[in-house]
């Protein structure tokens, strides 16, 4: 359907404002535009309207104005041209200087990239050129062909790298998804254990250990260990302190040695104490108790739980701990004798003397973040129960060949890794170095 034409409306001089008239007059005087062209441009009615404005408001005599401007004197024209040439020379010199500086800067950046590729073994040009091309295209508005010519690459290389980046991004998203699923139960599980648990998934995706760490690092998913220590051991008491029976012992089976310790669990408003008993061979937590005090009662409840869970009752068992008052007390020693368990204690304040217990404490507090929740005693006990179940049943342990503690506790064929010998060798090496120097 055709639209109706707008009706013709005759305008008078009052319909045009004074600023508008003056601007039209100024444009006529400063350019070579004709009256009719100005009328069409601004839709001014009347063939003589603009001429009347020029006569009335203009600064030139319309009657004597010609269509051809008067030629300037030859000398004046030469002076103006010489001035223009001098201006162009200065501009050209400035542009040449800027271009030279840019060439130097580009050469220095090329050298920096060469050094970085050589020292850090990263192919920066190969990996980042497509991304740099996209960013420069957005900023400068150049075509892809122009950018490829500037960078010395062809379009096929660009599209191959883009396809590879897109494929790697999709692969990384799948890896992050399975990592998040696994970390729902173990929120701070480290990269090596993630690789062990996700080995089959990663193999299907074509992701190796180094690639996994690269993906975790790029997405801020690498965990950093927390450092915190609260002393819970009181060794200054009247009770008997027992000898260390496990200093040179070789761990070959579960329920050969139990290690016991108490760790401090704090939240915003509450403070608790977690007594743990761990099998030194399998690293399984066999007994635990959470209470609001450091009394011997919590340690005794953990001991009763551990004894109740025993499956190798015919074996001789050693209970190893620090010299804390809870373990040296008469009631605790009496319970050990009742269960026919030998007592062993550290003879120094070296944390390596009870390293397994200290390590398990750190795992529960660091990887499972049990100290980050403001919970009542009842809720915290439920959290500790679920956490220890996940630790025993799901979390692989490096010293156990990345098997779970529960799996290790049900067999005695696998030889565990020990770091005691390597520590002794390191100390021996330091002593030899010291003697050679002095």
Automatic annotation (TrEMBL):
Q: Which PROSITE patterns match?
A: INTEGRASE (PS50994)
Instruction: Set out the biological process GO terms recorded for this chain's protein.
Output: DNA integration
Species of provenance:
Bacteroides coprosuis DSM 18011
InterPro entries, A to Z? Homeodomain-like_sf, Integrase_cat-core, RNaseH-like_sf, RNaseH_sf, Transpos_IS3, Transposase_IS3/IS150/IS904, WH-like_DNA-bd_sf
Keywords, in A-Z order: Coiled coil
**Pfam families listed in its UniProt record:** rve
The keyword RNA-binding is assigned to this record: no
Entry coiled-coil feature ranges: 78-105
Gene3D superfamilies, A to Z: Ribonuclease H-like superfamily/Ribonuclease H, Winged helix-like DNA-binding domain superfamily/Winged helix DNA-binding domain
User: Which residue numbers delimit the Integrase catalytic domain?
Assistant: 250-412
Q: Which GO terms describe its molecular function?
A: nucleic acid binding
Q: Does the keyword Phosphoprotein apply?
A: no
Taxonomically, the superkingdom here is Bacteria
- Record protein name field: Transposase IS3/IS911 family protein
């Amino acid at each position: 359907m055709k639209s109706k034409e707008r009706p013709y409306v005759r305008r008078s001089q009052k319909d045009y404002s004074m600023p508008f008239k003056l601007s039209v007059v100024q444009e006529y005087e400063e350019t070579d535009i004709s009256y009719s062209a100005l009328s069409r441009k601004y839709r001014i009615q009347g063939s003589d309207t603009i001429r009347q404005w020029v006569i009335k408001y203009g600064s030139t005599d319309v009657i004597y104005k010609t269509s051809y401007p008067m030629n300037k004197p030859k000398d004046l024209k030469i002076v103006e041209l010489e001035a223009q040439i001098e201006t162009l020379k200065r501009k050209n010199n400035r542009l040449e200087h800027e271009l030279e500086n840019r060439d130097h800067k580009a050469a220095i950046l090329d050298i920096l990239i060469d050094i970085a590729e050589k020292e850090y073994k990263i192919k920066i040009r190969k990996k980042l050129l497509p991304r740099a091309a996209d960013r420069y295209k957005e900023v400068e508005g150049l075509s892809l062909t122009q950018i490829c010519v500037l960078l010395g690459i062809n379009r096929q290389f660009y599209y191959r790298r883009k396809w590879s980046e897109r494929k790697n991004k999709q692969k990384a998203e799948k890896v992050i998804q399975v990592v998040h699923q696994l970390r729902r139960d173990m929120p701070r599980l480290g990269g090596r254990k993630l690789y062990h648990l996700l080995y089959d998934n990663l193999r299907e995706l074509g992701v190796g250990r180094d690639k996994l760490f690269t993906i975790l690092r790029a997405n801020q998913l690498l965990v950093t260990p927390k450092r915190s220590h609260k002393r819970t051991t009181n060794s200054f008491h009247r009770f008997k302190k027992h000898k260390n029976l496990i200093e040179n012992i070789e761990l070959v089976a579960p329920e050969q040695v139990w290690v016991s310790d108490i760790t401090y669990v704090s939240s915003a408003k509450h403070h608790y104490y977690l007594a743990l008993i761990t099998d030194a061979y399998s690293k399984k937590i066999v007994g635990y108790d959470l209470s609001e005090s450091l009394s011997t009662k919590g340690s005794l409840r953990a001991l009763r739980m551990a004894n109740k869970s025993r499956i190798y009752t015919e074996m001789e068992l050693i209970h190893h701990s620090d010299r804390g008052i809870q373990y040296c007390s008469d009631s605790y020693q009496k319970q050990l004798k009742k269960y026919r368990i030998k007592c062993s204690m550290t003879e120094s304040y070296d944390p390596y003397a009870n390293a397994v217990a200290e390590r398990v404490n750190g795992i529960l507090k660091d990887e499972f973040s049990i100290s980050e929740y403001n919970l009542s005693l009842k809720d915290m006990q439920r959290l500790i129960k679920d956490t220890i179940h996940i630790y025993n049943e799901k979390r692989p342990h490096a010293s156990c060949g990345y098997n779970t503690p529960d799996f290790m506790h049900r067999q005695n064929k696998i030889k565990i890794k020990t770091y005691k010998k390597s520590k002794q060798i390191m100390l021996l090496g330091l002593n030899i170095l010291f003697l050679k120097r002095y």
